[in-house]
Amino acid sequence: MIRIYITIFLIALMGSDQAFSQKRYAVVIGNSSYKKIQSLPNAGSDAKLFAKTLKGIGFQVEALIDLPFKKLEQRLFEAIDSAKNLPPGSSLVFFYAGHGVQNDIGNLLLPIDYRPNRNSNYLLLQEVLQDFSYSPDVQKVFIIDACREIDNVAGNPLVHSDSYVMPDNSYLAFSTNSKGLAQDGVGKHSPYMESLSQEVIRKGLDINTVFQNVRNSVQHATNFKQSPTQTSSLNSTFYFSPGKPNSNSLPRSIDHAKKHWLRIRNSQIPTDFTDHMNRYPNGKYFLQAEKKLLALRKKERPKSQQREIAVDLVLQGSPNQGNEEIKVVYVAPNSLLRDKLMEGDIILEINGNGIDSFKAKPTEFLENAYKQDQRLDIWLKRDGALSSVSYY
């Protein structure tokens, strides 16, 4: 499921040489239970996780979960007043998880009682940023885990950092670039929050290293469909968890295939496993993913079911090295192509074209051709030998 919400942090930062005695204050907002637009299960769970994480590293946290606009606005104003009383050098975190959209007014943060196509209340992102930018002596970090689309709501994706007037002494991070999609994740939390909540507790990591690690982790977890970005006007370094680096803070080699497998291994969605096989064709969990895929396909395609294409294909290889290929990983017992294709076949061309014409969604390509009664001429490699098959 594509994640359709925004996560924002506003953090007044402190250097590593400053003591934890400095005030560390956080406001955490999570909007999940929308009434008139899509609900966002992970927005609330991500907010709760980050609130708990911040408490664990010394922040006083105000958690505002699923509040309608009037209550949200009131509590937010109270939080802004509290933040204005923080002494210089304190740390302030503002975290928002929920729907957002950009239109001619600006970037809007939508409360749970937002009603599309009507004059409805909202928070204006730029105003929120400015409200927390009252002091140049307080370092700020704004982090936006941005959504891309909302059904029935007019507008565009939120404008990214190059369109903002950066407040002095600030750090601005987005969970994805302007052309990307923020993934909601298979489990309780998004890939972005799963990584961020782990990185901020690692002692001695400066903020740039934290977000470099998050970017790397999210890119691998989403097969480079999501690429976090950052920009900074900070005057000094900030550490979420000041202190001497321990073994957990040292550079580490992340087993991305294992991390992804642990997230999906109990999923009942077949495409989760074809996705894993596409990402890690040489990974140690490829065969387990294939086995789980076959079991799910067998369960959902009984022999009594009307015959159809019922083929699963995966794209493997490296586009940079020019060796991408489509591999047949499953052909259902009742598939119309059961006598044409075999598991392990490598498709070279289809209907006189290379794989570029259908590699984005190869399985859907075959299904659509079948539904439209198109002739299929498939050139393939089987056991190292060239061959061709046709279906009318």
Automatic annotation (TrEMBL):
InterPro entries: Caspase-like_dom_sf (IPR029030), Caspase-related_regulators (IPR052039), PDZ_sf (IPR036034), Pept_C14_caspase (IPR011600), Pept_C14_p20 (IPR001309), Pept_C14A (IPR015917). It is an enzyme of class 3 (hydrolase). Transmembrane segments: none annotated. One of its GO terms (biological process) is proteolysis. Keywords: Hydrolase, Protease. Its EC number is 3.4.21.102. Residues 22-148 form the Caspase family p20 domain. SUPFAM superfamilies: Caspase-like, PDZ domain-like. Signal peptide: none annotated. SMART domains: CASc. Pfam families: Peptidase_C14. Belongs to the peptidase C14A family. This is Carboxyl-terminal processing protease.
